[in-house]
Amino acid sequence: MRWLAFVLCMLVTPLAAVQPDEVLDDAALELRARALSEGLRCPICRNESIDESNADISRDLRILLRERLVAGDTDDQAVQYLVDRYGDYILLSPRVEGVNLALWLAAPIMLLLAGGIAAVTIRGRSQAVGPEELSAEEKARIDKIMRS
């Protein structure tokens, strides 16, 4: 039973890869560093923050981020420093500006286009002309064939 509880705890809470030698002495700065590193992507790992990643580059980025905070950078300055070096890719939630704006708007635009195409297609099918009524001659021929 304890094993099951342990496994569930491991699945529910992600483990941080922050090593004890990385932790800052100032608790307030450490909290800021943790909050910022949760929003920064590991350049090697897919959709994993530098706080969760065990990659060497993530460790270097965590240390660099903490150095910037200790040097007196604000949260925005520290993050911008990393963005300047690694590009917007390092942000787990990219900014809605510039080229990224096209990416943010592409999905809703495609959804609207698909909905419009579906509506036109459905409307066109509902207005389609049904089969014409059979003439008396055609009905007589069918009756003759059916009796044979």
UniProtKB/TrEMBL annotation:
Keywords: Heme, Iron, Membrane, Metal-binding, Signal, Transmembrane, Transmembrane helix. It comes from the Bacteria. The chain crosses the membrane at residues 101-122. GO terms for molecular function: metal ion binding. One of its GO terms (cellular component) is plasma membrane. Pfam families: CcmH. Residues 7-146 form the CcmH/CycL/Ccl2/NrfF N-terminal domain. InterPro entries: C-type_cytochrome_biogenesis, CcmH/CycL/Ccl2/NrfF_N, CcmH/CycL/NrfF/Ccl2_sf. The keyword Metal-binding applies. PANTHER family: CYTOCHROME C-TYPE BIOGENESIS PROTEIN CCMH (PTHR47870), CYTOCHROME C-TYPE BIOGENESIS PROTEIN CYCH (PTHR47870:SF4). Belongs to the CcmH/CycL/Ccl2/NrfF family. Possible subunit of a heme lyase. This is Cytochrome c-type biogenesis protein. It comes from Octadecabacter temperatus. The gene is ccmH.
